[in-house]
Design a protein that fits this description.
The protein is α/β, with parallel strands linked by helices. The chain has 10 helices and 17 strands. The protein has helices spanning 2-34, 104-116, 134-137, 157-163, 186-201, 255-261, 305-312, 331-337, 354-361, 379-385; strands at residues 51-55, 63-67, 73-78, 124-128, 166-171, 205-208, 229-236, 239-241, 248-250, 274-279, 282-286, 317-319, 341-344, 371-374, 398-403, 409-415, 424-432. A 9-stranded mixed beta sheet has the order 6-5-4-3-2-1-15-16-17. The protein has an 8-stranded mixed beta sheet with strand order 9-8-7-10-11-12-13-14, covered by helices on one side. Helix 2 (104-116) packs across helix 4 and helix 7 packs parallel to helix 8.
């Protein structure tokens, strides 16, 4: 009788455990199915716990829009080159995407608004400008419309700020804009007019990017719910995080020393903002246009990729510095980061450099698989570089990285850039975070 009762109890709990297991499996299957991504489908909306990184292709410069696990949003760059320049209408450069009916800034704003329709709040929490070049911030041109205030032209970041409220603007030189020397020209004046008007009339706040900090860019909605999320500011203006607490090291010599010796001052590209986004085991790096390969006659400190790489460490996703131009992606940088995914924000036949592509694919630099994705790969590139480009997983489209809750895995999703549908062209992954 005792054995019979024991068997009955065992049968009951065995059945209950099996039922729970089966229900759990069905729930996971249902969840996976409803949140799956397939070719031809419109991108499923963001859900809390996921992190989406949109590399938006306007054909005219860089633009990346982040949706963090709690719905906090961040924009990194909003480039718009002079669409009237002859260079921009020849075979050397990409065409406007999806078409020429709007300015690049208007197309970027439209894309961001489409994504924001899925979010609880419609403003941008943080907007960063990596450095002051037109393909990263926008330059006024003859087709740039006036702002509603009439105080500045709409191009790149100023266009986005006109259509979407930005809570905090962060750049490398606020408030005096004088490093390594006074920054001048129409593009800077237009941007500063935008900053001045937005701070006085719309309440936008402005800060200088703080190298070494992990407290400047934080979750704004449910920070305590995602303790493994962090944005670490790696470098700006030659100041590089050492990897210890918030301590930085000045990589560039003092400006006064360089002036006294008659040496060149740091250029705009080496001064770029660089940061790492971490979520659980997942890590992502982007660094504007920082260089790592010295040209003839360059001072050794012009290689800023090397000290940056020491601070960053291994990552899952790397956005190519300087669009993969020939002065970037040095072997030490690649060996240190060891990315599974390389993203190329490219719009010119200079991108990527042939030797850069060879380094990216070279397993002697770091072993293991790696997948390469590009926003615009031109016919001119195929004519010059040839068969190596056939190894790209995707050569055209918006490139989105969707990171699963807790950062354990991620997918790369290519979205159609010929219209505004956010339709999926291809899905790669899931990849496991390391």
């Amino acid at each position: 009788m005792k054995n019979l009762k024991s068997y009955a109890a065992w049968s009951y709990w065995s059945f209950k455990a099996s039922s729970i297991f089966i229900i759990g499996c069905l729930f996971l299957l249902l969840f996976h199915t409803t949140y799956s991504q397939t070719s031809g489908q419109v991108l499923p909306k963001w859900q809390e716990g996921y992190m989406d990184i949109h590399h938006i292709n306007s054909g005219m410069g860089d633009c990346t829009f982040f949706v963090f696990p709690d719905g906090t949003t961040m924009l990194f760059d909003a480039g718009e080159m002079d669409i009237t320049a002859p260079r921009m209408n020849g075979p050397r450069n990409a065409k406007r995407k999806p078409d020429a009916s709007k300015t690049p800034g208007e197309w970027m704003a439209h894309y961001i608004k489409e994504v924001q329709n899925q979010l609880p709040r419609k403003e941008i929490d943080f907007a960063l400008i990596s450095h002051f070049h037109d393909d990263h911030m926008g330059a006024p041109h003859t087709k740039s419309p006036d702002s509603k205030s009439g105080k500045y032209k709409l191009t790149g970041i100023t266009t986005i700020g006109e259509y979407i409220s930005i809570n905090k603007m962060i750049d490398r030189a606020w408030p005096d804009y004088n490093y390594p020397q006074p920054l001048e020209g129409e593009m800077i004046r237009n941007y500063r007019s935008f900053i001045d008007w937005q701070t006085k009339n719309n309440g936008m706040k402005v800060e200088r990017f703080k190298a070494g900090s992990n407290a400047q860019l934080t979750l704004q909605n449910q920070k305590d719910k995602y303790p493994t999320f962090e944005i670490r500011n790696i470098a700006v203006n030659g100041n590089v995080w050492t990897g210890l607490e918030n301590v930085t090291r000045a990589h560039f010599p003092e400006v006064e020393t360089l002036k006294a010796q008659g040496d060149d001052l740091p250029g705009e590209n080496p001064c770029s903002i660089a940061f790492r986004v971490s979520y659980g085991q997942f890590d992502y790096f982007t660094g504007g246009d920082i260089p790592g390969i010295l040209e003839y006659g360059d001072p050794i400190w012009n290689d800023i990729e090397t000290p940056v790489a020491k601070a960053v460490g291994p990552v899952e996703v790397n956005v190519l510095n300087h669009h993969g131009n020939r002065d970037s992606q040095n072997p030490f940088f690649l060996e240190s980061l060891r990315p599974r995914i390389h993203i190329m924000s490219v719009w010119s036949s200079d991108h990527p450099g042939h030797d850069v592509l060879e380094r990216l694919l070279n397993e002697a630099i770091y072993p293991g698989p790696r997948d390469l994705f590009a926003t615009n790969m031109l016919e001119a590139n195929y004519q010059v570089i040839g068969s190596s480009l056939e190894k790209l997983k995707s050569a055209q489209g918006h490139i989105m990285v969707r990171v699963a809750p807790n950062g354990d895995s991620y997918k790369v999703i290519i979205l159609n850039d010929d219209d505004t549908s956010l339709k999926i062209k291809a899905v790669f992954g899931p990849y496991s975070s390391r």
